[in-house]
Structures are given as C-alpha cells and as structure tokens.
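Issue: copy button drops trailing tokens. Both records pasted manually instead:
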Amino acid sequence: MKYLIPIALTSLIALYTSMTYAQEVQKDSIFVKIEDKLEIKVSIYDYSDLKSTILKDLEELQEILKVTEDIPEDTPYSITYKPNEKLTINTKETVETVIWENGKHMPYKFENKCVIVSDKYQLKAYFNTLEDLTSEDLTAKLSEAVEATITNNNRYSKLFKYSFDKDSLIASENYGIGKRGHTLELTGGVGANLIKNEFVLDLSGQIAFNLNNKDIPKSSYYISYNLLYDFVENSSADLNGFLNLGYRHNLSNSYNDTNWLGLEFGYLVNRNGNLFDEDTFRFGLNWDLGRSISIAPQLYISSEQTFPGLRIGIGF
C-alpha cells in the first residue's frame, strides 16, 4: 500500500506523455517555383519516409482528379485532400500570392489552390490549370526539391527555396529560421516532500546542459543538489543534502511549452538526524509540468531500509 502513490503517479505520467508524442511541429519549410505555372509550399513535420510519402499521396490525388467531373470550370476553386480519408472541392475568390524568384519576391496571380494534409507534412500548391497540377512534370520536380532538402537537413530549422527553369534546378538556397545552439542552464527551486509520512521542505539548485533540435530543447544532462529541512522539536531543523545526477527528455514538440520527463540518481552527502541512514541512495522519476512545477516519485534505498517518497517542486 505504501508504494501505491508512486506507482499511480508513474502511470499517470506515462499516459500523459503518450498523448504528447502526437503533437506536430514544423521542422522545415520548402518553397518551390516551377516556371510561371506553380508555386508549392511544404511544411515538414516528420522526415521519415518523407519523399516516398509525398509522392505517393500526390500521385493518388492526381489519379482522382484526372477522372473526376466535379472540377468547377468557370470559377476559382480550392481542393483539400486528406490521403485515404477525404477530398473536398470548394469555390473561392481569386487570390494573389507572392513567389520567390532570382532572390526577389515577385507577385503572381493564381486562381486555384490545392492542400494536402498529412501527419508528416502539409503541402499547398497554387496553380491556374488542372493540367499543371496533375502533370508528371510536377511530380518529378517536387521529388527533386524534396530530395535536396533531405540531403541538407540538419538540427537547425530552415526555409529551403527552389526555382526551376524547364528541367533544371537553377536555384537552391536555405535560410536559418532559428539558430539556437546548445544551452547551459542554471536554475533553482523549492520543494515539498513526503518522506516516511513526514512533510519535509527543501531548497534546490541545478546546472543543466541542454541539447536542442530544430530550436527545441530535447535532451538535458544535469547535476543538482537538494538541501532538505527536517523540522524537529523546538522549531529546529536537521539538514540533509543529496547530490544528484540526472537525464531528462523533452516530450513536447512546442517551442513555447516543455514537457520534461527524466530519471535521477542521488546520494546522501550531508546527513543530520535520523531521517536517513548514512549510506542512503535515491532514485527518482522527474516530470516537469511546464516550466515551473515538477513532480517526482522517489525511492530511497540504504543497507537498512527501503521506502518511497514524493516531491512537488516549484522552480525559479
């Protein structure tokens, strides 16, 4: 029964993090101009099998459009396609969009738009005639642009721009959307602990080395120190200190909100009173709820006893 709370909290963390993995984040973007016929923008969420997925979805859409009789003839329209699920066509007003050309932005008018929505990417194509959208030329040139992007992909978020002259890729430039490198982070906090059915307060300090991917901190290695205040009779307190080493991984794909989950190993380096034995180790599962609140089920182990603990922390 005494292990029920840590087990329940661990299960809750596992459930929440499985939901977090489903979040989408734009890693890179592609702009492609094919002569004066098409402008394409691709927002990339997942690079795994990206090229084959895009080409498969596009070719399936082209086959559907070649046989359908529902394309408006005298009015601009917008196509939305979710592979293997649904295709819709809506009429719309003519829009003017901006296309990159030879290092400059040039305005062109396209009457129609097509959007393909996928878990791995989102593609928007602006065009005037259905023949341009369903041509093999589009498939071949988009394949070349995606392949070039995959080759130049790295841990920085980028905007890749391509332009075609007939069958030649005449321009290929990329600009860093974000250039945040690895970071060294110093933080502090206070915590409330439940240890042996006693409430124990603590002060903590931590220094962490964070590894970023696409400008999002994803992995963190840290060393921390917890100074625990065990209040006893006469309003005095026994001070105990744990030195900790830990690793955590950010399960969030949001630039603004983090969801750190990690493991921590600690050892009692400063002992006073009878709350802990001299050779006490501590293992913890740390979950940061956003940027300021954390919760950590813990297990204390010594040669004499083993017991659970729970810490709720507030960082600053």
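Record 2 (pasted manually too):
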Amino acid sequence: MKTGNGYVLMLVIAFFFSALASCNRYAPDGPAAAALEFSEYFAEGDVEKAAEMVQGYHSLPHTEQHQLTMFMTQVRLEMRQYGGIESFQIMEEEIYDDGERAYVKIKTTYGNGDTEINTEAMVKTPQGWKMALYASDKQ
C-alpha cells in the first residue's frame, strides 16, 4: 500500500516530466530540430556535418560538395564582423499538408547583440529532415 507521501512524490515526478516535455514543443526528429542541428553545426564550424544536412548533398559531385563547404566557411568568416554567432532560437515551424515539406523560422543572435530572423525551407527525406535546395515561399 502506498502512503500519502508516495502519491505526492508521484505527482511531483509527473509534473516535472510534463513541464520538461512542454519546454520543447517541437518533435525531436522534426524539421525544427533538424534546422537547429544544421545551425549548430554551422556555428561550431563543422561545415562538413552542416553540409550533410542539405538535401541531395551526397549525390552532388565532389567538386560541388567542396564548393558548398567552402561557401559555408566563407559565410562563417564574414559573421565574425558581428561577433560570431551567440545563439539560435526556433520561432516557428510549419509542416505543409503533404507532410514532406516545411519551413522553420530561426532567430540568430550574434555576439554584438544584433539579431536576424531567417525562414528556412525543409524537406523530408528517407534520412530525415534536410535543408531544402529550393527557397522557402514563406517570409
């Protein structure tokens, strides 16, 4: 038989896990999580891993893969003038009715305090959500 304290403890544990689950309202394998993962790889300078999260990257010729990673490296270097990247925050996620496309709005905060909001197009592939090669129609 459980005591009154046992029930209280169970309620506290249940509340803790519900609060924890509500902190992240996006699915861990959804487009927002993938966009955030891409952004974090990019910010950390792991442009190879970031590039692998772009739709069709592995089917590109080696020279085009190299061009993509060099472009990402150049963009990262240019961001130094803003103090680098401080943080990312998912502002919005919308999965289209077909379940295969989505867009994610990401707020980037730079080291100098400036912020920028970008809308990233995402596409669902057999390997999970990837950054789409097409431009998002959302602004």
